[in-house]
Design a protein that fits this description.
two-stranded antiparallel sheet; alpha+beta; single chain
């Protein structure tokens, strides 16, 4: 069975990384992310990205 068919969700393509400050804030913890401040959309810092991935991982 193909796990890609079991795990559906939002587009997980991250935004382009910023070359330098200013950085966008993480929407969960408000720490700086690796993404430019001008990025429109949800940005997560590396820690919250990892925690969110663990929380939403498929168990199948």
């Amino acid at each position: 069975m193909n796990h890609e068919n079991l795990c559906s969700g939002a587009d997980t393509t991250p935004p382009a990384k910023a070359d330098g400050p200013p950085y966008a804030e993480c929407v969960l913890c408000r720490e700086p992310t690796e993404y430019p401040e001008s990025y429109k959309g949800i940005t997560l810092c590396p820690v919250c990205t990892w925690q969110e991935a663990q929380r939403t991982a498929c168990s199948g």
